[in-house]
Design brief:
single chain, about 400 residues, mainly alpha, three-stranded mixed β-sheet, three-stranded antiparallel β-sheet
Length: about 400
């Protein structure tokens, strides 16, 4: 057992080293390689620096609190207090030093509690590794590890004449809106290929570094979906679906969509087991950032997918300006229905199209993965079956 524990700890250390190396490799993939991306270079996200700071920080905290045996009720109380303070902070635009201090005091304990509970759900779903001689241990690897923090933004760039994610570039989390507008303007003005590009700076809900990072102003339900989503990215690296993430747009779409669908299903099981915020804590004030409810009878997903098809048909006929005018008009219509999209353009559809279950996608991978989930019978089995897929043909074969 000692040999195994030593090997496990060594694997975690190697994982940390790989996270830093992977951060550098990912930066080279998503870093500036042309005039459009250079427009945002001064706001580039320091991924390697984030890894170097947070990986040892998290594990030192775990070691320091290794024998801190709190009851489940105490753990739940910490979660309740954390999201109560977050709601107080979000309910006003004024500084609230007391709520900020409370959040900082509770954050590490809340992360530890959620990580332990997520691990229990993953074990229940048999999303574990079984090393030789220790197959009965059912280890969750990589260990669940996330940080509540500001998440990187992404500059997405698509050609104007078609919807295609040509480039994406990680940006620092906190960029003032006027500078975001300038970044998009500069990227679109670069016009390096003579045909023009569409650009969009997007806020991410999470990022699969290690530890993964989850957006700090996220409500509890969305936070849990993101924690599972980002862990699945780390887990899938051990299988073809993750190892070949950058191999093709098909593989990337499959990977992101499996993480999206699997993350939502695993979060559902988490809340069935541990209760929602309302069930565990009683009524909580809703964060100010929560969007207003969609008007009854308005099918946002259907409207978005119909728009995507219409825009693609117009672009195929060379009607670029007309397609852009249509997207702008639809954006205003959605806002009148209580759904705010800051900019709706080719880059928006190109970025969100990798999530085949999202309203901005018309990729048949989404419905097919939903069928695979239904046939699998559980989220864990769904992830196991999907982990070997890398193409649409693979998915079709799995469904047959």
């Amino acid at each position: 057992m000692r040999v195994f524990l030593a090997a496990y700890l060594a694997a975690v250390v190697v994982l940390g080293a790989l996270a830093v190396g992977g951060g550098l490799a990912l930066y080279s993939r998503l870093g500036p390689d042309g005039a459009a991306e250079e427009a945002a270079s001064e706001h580039g996200y320091n991924l390697a620096g984030w890894e170097i700071k947070h990986f040892p920080e998290k594990w030192l905290h775990k070691l320091q609190h290794l024998f801190n045996d709190r009851s489940e009720q105490e753990r739940t109380d910490a979660i309740c207090a954390y999201f109560k303070a977050a709601a107080e902070l979000n309910s006003t635009q004024e500084p609230n030093a007391e709520a900020e201090k409370r959040l900082a005091e509770l954050e590490n304990d809340v992360e530890d509690t959620i990580e332990g509970r997520v691990t229990a759900v993953l074990k229940d779903q048999k999303l574990t590794l079984e090393p030789p001689l220790f197959s009965d241990l059912g280890l969750v690897f990589p260990p669940v590890d996330f940080e509540i923090d500001g998440t990187p933004r992404v500059l997405a760039v698509s050609p104007r004449e078609r919807i295609e994610l040509r480039d994406s570039y990680l940006l620092e989390p906190d960029i003032p809106q006027p500078e975001i507008d300038q970044i998009e303007h500069n990227a679109e003005s670069a016009n390096v290929d003579g045909r023009g590009v569409s650009a969009l700076v997007i806020r991410t809900g999470g990022f699969s570094s290690y530890p993964s990072v989850v957006f700090e102003d996220t409500p509890y339900d969305s936070l849990m979906e993101t924690v599972f989503h980002e862990w699945l990215h780390s887990y899938l690296i051990l299988f073809p679906l993750g190892a070949r993430y950058f191999g093709s747009s098909e593989t990337r779409t499959l990977n992101e969509s499996v993480a999206n669908i699997g993350g939502k299903e695993l979060a559902r099981l988490y809340f069935e087991r541990y209760g929602t915020l309302e069930q565990a804590c009683g009524a909580q004030p809703a964060p100010a950032a929560t969007p207003p409810p969609t008007p009854s009878g308005f099918d946002f997903t259907g409207e978005m997918r119909a728009l995507r098809r219409e825009v693609e048909a117009m672009l195929a006929q060379g009607q670029v300006e007309q397609a852009e005018a249509l997207m702008a008009a639809k954006r205003d219509e959605f806002q009148s229905k209580g759904i705010f999209i800051r900019r709706l353009n080719q880059a928006y559809f190109a970025f969100h199209g990798f999530y085949a279950d999202s309203p901005g996608s018309i990729d048949p991978i989404g419905p097919k993965l939903q069928t695979l989930l239904q046939r699998a019978g559980s989220p864990g089995e769904f992830v196991r079956r999907a982990s070997a897929l890398t193409t649409r043909a693979d998915l079709d074969a799995a469904l047959q």
